[in-house]
Design goal:
alpha/beta, Rossmann fold, 2 domains, six-stranded parallel β-sheet, EC 2.4.1.182, phospholipid binding, lipid biosynthesis, glycosyltransferase, Glyco_trans_19
Amino acid sequence: MPRYGRVIWILAGEASGDVIGARLMQALHAQDPSLVFAGVGGGRMEALGLHSLFPMSDLAVMGLVEVVPRLRQLSQRLLEAVQDIELRKPDLVVTIDSPGFALRLLQKIERSGIKRVHYVAPQVWAWREKRVKEFPGLWDRLLCLLPFEPEWFAQRGLEGRFVGHPVLQSGVRNGDGQRFRLRHNIPAHAPVVILMPGSRRSEAPRLLPVFRKMLDILRVQYPDICPVIPVAPVIAPTIRQLIRKWPIQPHIVTDIHDKHDAFAAAQCALTKSGTSTLELAMGNVPMAVTYRVNPVTATIARRLIKVPHVAMVNLLAGREVVPELLQENCTPKKLAETVSKLLSDPQMVEKQRMAFADVLDMLSPPVGTPADAAAAEIMDLLNEPVSRSSRS
C-alpha cells in the first residue's frame, strides 16, 4: 500500500498547461486518492485544491524579445519555485510544457534526488535542435503528446513515451451551436467567426489590431458577421480593454462549455499557431492560422525553425491543410480574403474537415485517455524505489 500523503509538486505556466494539469490531477487522484498536490497552476488546478505558489499568469510570456522586460520577475519566480520544492521535499515534480521556465526549474533541482517528469516534450524537432544536448539529466521521464516524438528523441539518445494528446479530452464535440446563438442572441443567418489571438499577454496586443481591421473589411460583404473570442478568464480583462473601441463588439467567451458551443456555431476560425489548431479540428471548425511577433524575434526564429509548417494540423498531416498567414502575411487584407473564402467555399471547407479526421486519429494513446496514460507513467515512476529512478 502507498504511504499516505505523498506529495506531487506540479507546475503549469499557461492556460493550456492549466487544463492539462487539472486533468492530470484528477487522473492521479483516481489512481491514488491520498496524493497531495503543491506547485503553480491556474484556475482549473486551483479548483481541484492546488494553492498556487504565485499567479500562473506571471509565467505566460512568449517571444525572444518579448521576454526581456520580464526577466527579473521570471528569475524571482524561479527562485521561489526552487525554494518551495527544497522546503517541501515532494516525492515527485511534474513540469507541464512552458520549457523556458520548466526546464530551468528542472535543472535547478537536478541534484535534489527528487523524481522529475516533464509532460509535453519540448518541440526541439521544430527549432533549436541543439538544445537536446542540455536535456540528459533534466528528467526521469519525458511524456510526449505527438506520435512521432518518441522515435525522434530516441534517435538522439533520449527516451520519450507517447501518452496521447490532451485535446482528445477537451469535450469540444459536445458543443451545441443553436444553444450558443440563443444564449448570445445571434441570428441564425449571421456568420460566426472564432478569433483566437492567444492566451499570453504578449500575443493578443499584436494580433487584435489586425483582426479589427480585418473585420472592417469583412463587414462590407458580411454585415451581420459575428466575431467570438474564446479566452481564459485570467486574460479576459486584457482582451476587453483591447477591444473596447471596436465598431463590431466580439462576444468574449470564458466558460469552457460556452466555448465549445461557440465552436459548434462557427462557420470558420482565425487562430494563432499552437494547440488551438487541434482543438478547432476536434470541433470540425474550418480555419486559417496566423501569427505576428516582434520583427527581431521573427528574423531569429526563421533561421532556427526546421519544419515546413507552424500549424500542428499541417505538421501532422505532412502538408498544408489550413492556410498559414504569418508575420508579413498577417495583414487585414490577406486575413479578410482568407476568411471570406472559408465562408463561401464549401469545397475548401470539406477538404479541411476530411484532413482533420485523419490527423486526430494519430493522437490517441494505446489505452484509455491521454490523462490516464500520463498518470499511469507518473505513478509507475513514483512507485519505483529511488535507487532505480533513471537519470536519462
